[in-house]
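Table S4 entry, Aspartate/glutamate racemase family protein.
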Amino acid sequence: MRILVVNPNISESVTELILAEARRSVSPGTTLTMATAPFGVAYIETRFEALVGGYATACVVAEHAGQFDGVVVAAFGDPGLAGIKELCNVPVVGMTEAALASACLLGQRFSIIAISNRIQAWYRECVAANGLSSRLASVRSLQQPLRDIGSVQEDHAARLEELSVQAVREDGADVIIVAGAPLAGLARTLKDRIPVPVVDGVSSAIRHCESLIALAPNGAAEGSFARPPHKPNRGLPPALAAMLA
């Protein structure tokens, strides 16, 4: 299996965190190709930034066309996911949908632990888009400014653990989702400190993507995820234009 893992933001330090957790999670014989968005922002926490990240991810996917059996969109909130599913005839998995799927298999209600307060509204919308608002116990987040996106775990580990315990004991969470690529791998650290299962988006996405590749589903020839119809376009990167041709 060949999986393309795309970081939709421009932070190479976050790409390294994603890759480290992906390598810990991947099955023997699966090859990972890691890519970072060529343009955009350091980390995504707003709807507009997600719009930019989704387009950047689509451009990366087009550049690697024909070189993968599955794609992972490695940012919580799944920037551009639905559109990229239309573009590709192989499984495309987002961190959010994968983490939510894992959480729903492990418990009834889940809480999301996020890296910023601003990001909460968008995350709630993402949960709603997946039809799971009734199972969301809470979204709790850091409130302090971030020194560096690549050092969030190092700088805020104690507070992230505290928020997770609060979500269990005060909000009734059966499962904790540590959200966002900057927290990739944190679930492994927290799992013995939190009294419920802790889910990581990167490892969930890698494993779910492998499962879908193994199932060898057909690409969508009809329905809402069929490929976009060919039509005149202008100004698109050559690789993306070629995929749409």
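Residues 75 and 181 are 6 Å apart (CA to CA).
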